[in-house]
Specification:
Elements: H1 2-11, H2 18-50, H3 53-70, H4 76-89, H5 93-121, H6 127-130, H7 138-158, H8 160-167, H9 171-195, H10 200-224, H11 242-273, H12 276-300, H13 303-312, H14 316-352, H15 360-386, H16 390-413, H17 418-430, H18 432-444
Helix pairs in contact: 2-9, 2-12, 3-7, 3-11, 3-12, 4-5, 4-8, 4-11, 4-13, 5-7, 7-10, 8-9, 9-10, 11-12, 11-16, 11-17, 12-14, 12-15, 13-15, 14-15, 15-17, 15-18, 16-17
Amino acid sequence: MKKLSFFFGIIFSKNRNRSNQAKFNVLAGFFLKGSNVLVSLFLVRIAINYLDTEKYGIWLTLSSILTWFTFFDVGLGNGLRNKFAQAVANGNIEKAKVYLSTTYAILIIVASIMVIFTLLFNRYIDFSELYNVSASLHFELRKLTSIVIILFSFRFFLQLISVVVFALQKSAVSNLFDFASNITIVILLLIITRITDGSLIYLGLIMGLSPIIVFTIASIILYSNNLRKYRPSIKYIRFRYSKDLITLGANFFLIQIAALILFASSNFIIAQLSSQQDVTKFNVVYKYFSVQLIIFSLILGPYWSAFTESFHKRDFAWIKNVMNKLKRIWLFMAMLTFIMILSANTIYKYWIGRDLEIPFTLNILMGIYIVIITWNQLFVNFINAVGKLQLQLYHSIFIICINIPLSIFFFKNLHLGLSGIVLSNILCQGIALIWTPLQYRLLITNSASGLWNK
């Protein structure tokens, strides 16, 4: 514990300006996130070999269900991130504690409701039909789903420590949490592969418990030392402040729902129209190309709260300088995507250890999708940081309405298969190529009005 406290003390050093702090987080994040990506890729291979292609597809489908549950915070995490950062920037520590304590209280209540509903209603769900698998797996899947959702409920509020460190422009600490969780999962999974046959129950327990352990230890250490002045307390719970959090959070919530529908629903569509084997193929391709997305998110992450601070202090010159540098990084990464497309099938063979027969067209479309996503993300990161979400919200509602029927049409009616799913995602995100850079330009020149400034 003392060594961890010392390590956190280095990261929470105040002897850095905004730019240097962001650079430190990016460099530290690259090491931690890069290591985390390697561990995650290794984890995929272990999990597939421990189970099999079909059972791993079931696990991915369940993971998609859990992704839905992550949005039960109604955007409170991102709402807290902006409000907490503003309060700290203004030197209002008490208000920051009120926002934090109130968010913990709300999410603990939501998590309790999730547990109660799971225990009461899981017996009425036909899990074999939900996952489109043999009826003989029904009881195992019922137990698995209940265990994972209950464990996830604890993680639901414990992971707020990540939001706090992000708001304080210490994203390297959050990356450390993810790395520690995955290392714990790999170690435990390697142990059970030697003493058990492929069991979804054991995999669910390991995947659920590992982040809980990490977040609990991190919360105890940080709130006792580096974050002591922000430590949540019952006496600082003010539910009247929840309106500020929920108003901003509701917009984030709908935007997150759209992102969820754009990808997470793809697993359900594939599972229902094809097979769990195709779910695995789709996710292998996505995980491969999402390395680009992970790296770019890692670079952008430290700038969210920095943008919040600088925008409220009207430091537009700093924002423009940073954005120009980020555009050059995006261009370099877009060119690397072309190399990833050409080498994709070779990489899959050595990575997974088996031939999954993935169409080359799917690789091309997924590469294009990631390039579009990262370009939009470049501007959306700034837009989110300053809380001007109305236009993004309307775009998200459009995605919610069109993505699923469009995906089904391409997959089933045009017989495009997995490529049709990605093509639908490309079309939905392609619209944002126009409005995201325009809104950024209007905001940064202080000429945004109407919908562009809401």
